[in-house]
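ugh ok so i messed up the first submission bc i forgot one of the chains. this is the corrected input, ALL of the components this time, i swear. 860 residues overall. if the numbers dont match what u have on ur side tell me asap before i send this to the collaborators (the ones from the other lab, u know who)
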Amino acid sequence: MTQLIKARAGIITPEVERLAKEEGFRAEELAEKVAQGRVVIMKNKLRRNSVAIAVGEGLRTKVNANIGTSPDCVDFKDELYKIRVAEAAGADAIMELSTGGDIDAFRRTVLAATAIPVGSVPTYQAGMESISKNGSVVGMKVEDMFEMIERQAADGIDFMAIHSALNRSILERLKNQGRITDIVSRGGAFLTGWMFHNDQENPLYTQFDRVLEICKKYDVTLSIGDAIRPGCIEDSLDRAQVQGVIVAGELVKRALEAGVQVMVEGPGHVPLDQIPATILLQKQLCHHVPYYILGNLVTDIAPGYDHITAAIGATTAAISGANFICYVTPAEHLRLPTAEDVHAGVIATRIATHAADLVNGVKGAREWDLAMARARKALDWDKQIELAIDPPTARRIRGERNAEGDEACSMCGGFCAMKVVGEYLGTTEGSC
Amino acid sequence: MTLMEMAQKGQENPLFTMIAQNEQMKVQLLMERVATGQIVIPYNLHHQPKRAQGFGLGLSTKVSASIGLDNDEDLLADELFKVDEAMRAGTHAIMDLSTAGNIDEARRTIIERVPLPLGSLPIYQAFAEAVRTKGSALALEPEDFFRVMERQAADGVDFMALHSALHTGLLQTAKEDRRVLNLVSRGGSLLMGWMIYHHRENFLYTMFDRILEIAKKHEVTLSLADAMRPGAGADSLCRSQAEELVVLGELVKRSREAGVQIMIKGPGHTPPQQIAATVKLEKQVCQGAPYFVFGPVSTDVAPGYDEITAAIGGAMAGAAGADILCYVTPAEHIAYPNAQDVYRGVVASRIAAHVADLAKGYPGAEQWDLQMSQARREQNVEAQKRLALAQERLKDFHSSAKPFCNKCQTGCAMAVAGEFFQELPWEC
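and heres the new structure output, hopefully the right one now
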């Protein structure tokens, strides 16, 4: 039984019990949201060493970090290190997106090495294996696609991006639209090429029930992949994207009926003023299941700084109802991220989700800011660093530039506002 | 005649023409907005910056970077390097906030070097000189301040931040407000101390007409500062902030009547959902005066990353109508910014400003994104580098633009998809 089926049966699982407490809800309230499909509890039922997380309406906005090898760059140790960095920076989940080396072995290592939920895109590995077996991605056998989903699920993958919401009608609309960047989703491009080369409909769409069966068996949370997400500002909210959301909504309904936990993936490049509409449309068409977005990147013109373009977008997106944010690193559009990029990406995304949590009234969010403000008033540097979103970085910057035991923040030097007014008003804590 | 008066009389001049051209606005519309005060052009007669900028309604969102000597041991050369870095990163204005060392020399050197509008806070120098010559900031006399202001104006400072809306009534409100962080504005705090100690009213408030006279004589744009700027998200839109804004609105009216250009400075720490309201409130109460916001910093908890908290807030504020963003650097709340922090702060603010321009529908903003996306579609790395907002991190750009990776022997999925859409395929 999946968490969804149990919740519908009125069973309070240990995961729901624990997560409700963490998020400041009564267990019955959280179970009700799981039953409605508005919250998913991510945990493959075969995975023993992991801690489930809850994603969805009313909960703290969660952050995902992507890692994985590429065919040109197979260094498992390096990727494992990136996972550690992502976890230390506060990522709630990771996606393992390897396309190079012994992918099975690496996935199993990752699942054993981390306690947070792990996601994947089975089509990547299926495509790579098809290259060695059949000579090409387009040579993929339908059976192999499903075998891969089953293999990864049996290994314990907690959530899977599967590009089922892609079919010929969407592609025709995409062509008719005349986009700037047609398909920027790699999995989406694999399948599109496969569909045309083989002159067949997308098997992940036509045989969606098989996807559901596997997800149900292992309680894998299905993340309906956004094969046609816009790759630039200009392409945002076009007819093809809307058609994709409509199809995703139909699949969501079937998943919920089958008792499979489901969420929907979303863009991508979206201008700031279109974000609330994009989120609302998805929520309405997809039965209010959790929305998992990339960014949103609010402008195309800042390569090298896309963790910032994405932090701007993620804040507005999460305020508008997005629940799970895939990070964007400073390396986006440039190269594969280094460990340093992974760190910068996770922190920037956490700043954004926290800024949104403040607005959304998430338990503990305001209290955190208030504690920081009080520590600033008290000029309590140890407390400020302890409360910082990334204490090592705050400590390093301060340590590099300031003498020990300097009670004023060095921003104002001898003219510290807090100190001056504190002295004049004769109040305590060095402040007025 | 001031620029505002010229605009009111409909006298076109080369400055209006240049700015209108740069901003793709009809010069008549620009002049109408300068005439009513919805647009300001900081342009001191003794500086006449070559790359003069307009701030306000319908213009692109601008970025300002602050630097300055903070210790007597600080080297002017280091600050000049920061100025150069800020300009290399694409700032539209510089503020010299020196409070130590040879302040006059620093300002004069920077004015000569910078072809952009240059701002200052004359009260900093006035207090610093009072400490130096009289032994205490409290010994400052109003006349000392006006001498400094006159000197700075004669040197060519284009816009000046002044805490003229601070007055004794506001002190009482601030006390009753019980904010988490009472005063984080440095100039505001010093003035408040002076007022309390002497039981005197703020001379920047009572003698506002003298400020207007000096500003008018030298064509200095006033940038009225918010002494009650919230220093924590929890303090945002409190009574003292709102009350000060009301007074600021009154001063805007007086300034415009005198033909002196004026803009308003704003917060500061503001949670995301309060940003749009904060901007709209200023625009209404201050009769459309250009709004110059500090960030806004959208959460308190990320020291070391406040260029990001501010980029989030800046994009929202700009989209809601803020006209100029004062940068925030990664060193904010922790240390005095170095040259690298300055560069990063300007870049983050420029991203926010551009995102705001996209949302405002500023002419050309969407075009820039479109060109970048077309370069991506064509896998044109050189064009992508040229179009990038900042060049700093493009060195290790993944430049293998080869259309086929040759991994698949019997047909490439990317090529098939590409053929259908008639564009260059992906690499897998």
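quick check: Confidence is low (pLDDT under 50) at residues 428-432 of chain A. that seems consistent at least. The radius of gyration of chain A is 23 Å.
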